[in-house]
Amino acid sequence: MKYTHLTEVERYSYQARRAQQMARNRLSRSRRNKRYSDIDFRLPEALLRLDWSPVQIVGYLRVRGYPTMSHELIYQHIWNNKILGGTLWKHLRQSTKKRRKRYNSKDSRGRLAAKRHITERPEKAEHRKEPGHWEIDTVVGRGTKHCIVTLVDRMTGYTFIGQMDDRTNESLNVRMSKIMTRSDLPFKTINADNGTEFHGYVQLEKHHHCLFYFANPYHSWERGTNENTNGLIRQYLPKRTSMSHVTQKICNEIAHNLNTRPRKRLGYKTPTEYIHAHL
């Protein structure tokens, strides 16, 4: 329909047919009407198979100037792929952790005299102003004494994962010494919980010139970076499964996946990129 012969009254008064045609024209020009082919999804699919989330994929590509669709559209593509028998959905993180409240709980774990409290930690560590301030934890499996130790830099999210045959301070010190000796990254402070596996911390301080600080019992939010990282690791080592098969090679592969995955809080840079940029 053309409007070149409309009178002035018709041009500025509401015309239903004219309004409908204008709406159709706008819809045809809208970005929301853009259609993507299977070729357009090849790069997002490749990044999904690296266990990146749709939000990380879109943020990473946009920061680097690559054209991309919205993360909602990638999610739609994933679920359509699942309906057709695809496996892209298996690369999404699953949050199955059950939480319970603790009422008037007392710390029943081993007590350690003369340990430094988290409130004594340096300001640069508290406010993530420099790399080299770490959070540490152990993650246990089901049915065996095997476990892993996770070490995460507060500023950058850079992660080390170590295999342990048991949850003792001897095993932890051996694995930690290997990690710290082989890395060229700084280890200034380490924030731990009150588990007995950390009771040999004095030896680590002496040999590696770092300082340990301890959180309040059951205050997991005081080590939030590490808690979040442990949740990411559960994508590869689900809760309630045995860790008897876990080797150091597997730990290194999981850490590599996490360290080369872009993070929203880092401006969609990877922890590897971010930590080396700030050293």
From TrEMBL:
Pfam (any one): rve
Domain Integrase catalytic: 118-279
Gene3D superfamilies: Ribonuclease H-like superfamily/Ribonuclease H
Annotated region described as Disordered, given as residue ranges: 95-114
Spans traversing the lipid bilayer: none
Assigned GO CC terms: cytosol
Molecular-function annotations in GO: DNA binding; transposase activity
GO BP, sorted A to Z: DNA integration; DNA transposition
Source organism superkingdom: Bacteria
Known function: Required for the transposition of the insertion element.
NCBIfam families in the record: transpos_IS30
Family, as annotated: Belongs to the transposase IS30 family.
The name this protein goes by in its record: Transposase
UniProt source species: Vibrio orientalis CIP 102891 = ATCC 33934
Lineage start: Bacteria, Pseudomonadati, Pseudomonadota, Gammaproteobacteria, Vibrionales
